[in-house]
Sequence to fold (751 residues):
Amino acid sequence: MKEKLKLLELFLKSSNFDRGIRLGVGIAVPFAVLYFLGYVEYAPAVVVGAFLNAPGDIPGSFKRKINAILLSIGLTMVITAIILFSKPFLPLLVVALFTISFIVSLISVYGFRASLVSFSGLLAMVMAFAIHKDTPHEIFVQVGLMGVGGLWYLVVSFVFQKLAPVKDQNQLLSDTLLLIGEYLTLRAKLLTGKAKRDERIKQTFALQHKINEKHETLREALLTARKRSGRSHYEEKQLLILISSIHIFELIEAKHLDYKLIDQVFGKRKEFLKASKKLSKIMGNHLIRLSELLIQKDKIPNKDTLLDALSNANASITKYIDTVKLPEAREGALILKNLYDYQEQILQEIKAIRRVMANVKNASVVSLKREDSSHFLTLQEYRLNVLSQNFSLDSTMFRHSLRLTLAIVVAYLIGFLFDIQNSYWILLTIIVIMRPSYGLTKERSKDRIIGTLIGAAFAVSIVLLTQNIVVYSALAFVSMILAFSLIQQNYKYSAALITISIVFVYSIINPNAFEVIQFRVLDTMIGAVIAVVANYLIFPSWEVNNLKQVLLNTLAMNKKYLLATHELYQDVNKNNHAYSVARKEAFLAISNLNAAFQRLTQDPKSKQKEFQLIYEIVTINQTMISAIASIGNFIVSHKTTPASKELNLLIEKISNTLQFSFESLAHTEIEKGEEEENSEDAQEKLLEKYHQLSSMRDENIRLGNTELDTETLHGLQEAYLMANHLNWLKSLSENLKKATERYRIAIVESE
Fold:
């Protein structure tokens, strides 16, 4: 019960519920004011205007939010006018439907915010069928009042923003810490859980993409905030939490362990890994608790559990050495030590977040030059050439726009020919659930149908109990707020609440509520079926055929990241910023690849060509970026020796192999440079350096010098890490080259 109350509290204090309240205020206030002033006939148009322009009100840059809502207002007004003027003329109306659907849906090529503006435009087109205005004067009044409603909602959004200026960012930070906490606990299970390892690795792909999306939105919101007047103290705190969360995520990514090596080294001695596993779980759960406290504003939990777990992890290294004995224990001890160092760094970042949340006065201050911070923002290109570049059947968004347009026109004609009551509900279902990928459309269709049935069942039970209009009005209003609050978190429940709201609104107008419920369910099912069938048959966009460009970008960013890490090795201070930017770009690239793979898993089995090969490519790329991050993290946090000739040679070899894979996949002419004949020798020499240091250490132990100084320890760690990780990267790059070549032959050349 206590847990359920906590979840309820978190929901009621969330920015998602806050946006539901905004919409409620945006609808209720103008309706109430116009009712009391005696102009209630104008209220529906104002309410529709507010409702249509709410989708663009999402977290991020406040300036971009305003621009999006203003653009949405203009677009919804123009579209409504076109549809209302075209309704008396069927051929003209069909042409208008086709043109508006295609052009407006294609706006989505400009990114997520643009896709919400696009959705508002499509929603306005559908809502126009529910509006009955005959004369030009009536149409212009309707459109004008809708514009007033849109501007009113913008005012409401502005007021809410001023009353709670940090709520959206706090929610984003909370969601981010929650996801990272879940990610850390999942990675802990990978350490010893061999049986479900592949399944859990696939789960990490989805989490990585979600975390990167949150970080991108937070970068936009916080790095662009108040550029002219400077950041407030609270914004400074939020930025500190963001930076620490990015560091934690990158540290987790950097420790993509060679699980086969761990299984081999520890064998039946997995008990020595349990302390490290427990530490990761405790830190993950602590991050989840901190995520809740960003919303709840409760007392920060004691850190003693964290410190005890860290101490136990450190003690397990000594225990392992004492049990296995040196020199046999050296490799396992170094693995445990490297793991401990990375976990200690994560704990430092968690402590930093705790200090910021506890308002500690001496918490760090962020100092980012504007030109430096701009490099960490992924800017959306809004030029017309973006639209023209996507004006081809090769573009996923072009095919989606064409598919959606044809589905809408066919649905309208079905409704017209069979004289279906409120047939625009079919159109509404299509625009709400239809997505570029078949898998997501199918999933949303299922959720929509189940949600509609749940909502209809609830509505029937209420109708059987009472026919009170006041009850209907209250339920319609409350369910609409809750539906808008849940639309991103749980689409099934949101669909149920939307159904309840619509049914009771129509029940107020039409006394026969059961007829309203019946048509609502029927129209939803028809719309869902049309959406799924259209996605499957009309210019289908199977993910296996869309992977090429995502793979090319990942290969390019991995190579750039590798070379930036090499530069970092030469001079940490000089090349740290360039390294950070390359790391961010590589993480985004792998995130997009992971998201593409997730979409592939949702496609029909018959369309998942070469699934295992693609999974292998995704996994190798993920492992490569983690191995590079591990090297970079060690360089940043330790004083390293000068890069050797052998190290330079191996990095050049790996880079060339990645370039070969890129050129092979891109069908560009492959330049055959001189083969690095000495790469095998370089590998052996790097390993030899580690063995020399190990032998020196063994000799010291034999002579009674058992104390291990920091310099020798770091030297051993560096030699072991560089030798193993570069050899690992070389092997991975060669495996990736072979897998990419097989992908090109099996998929690209067969198109």
User: Anything to note?
Assistant: Residues 710-748 form the longest helix (39 residues). The chain has four domains: 1-164, 167-225+232-369, 411-545, 580-748. The mean pLDDT is 85. DSSP finds 28 helices and no strands in the chain.
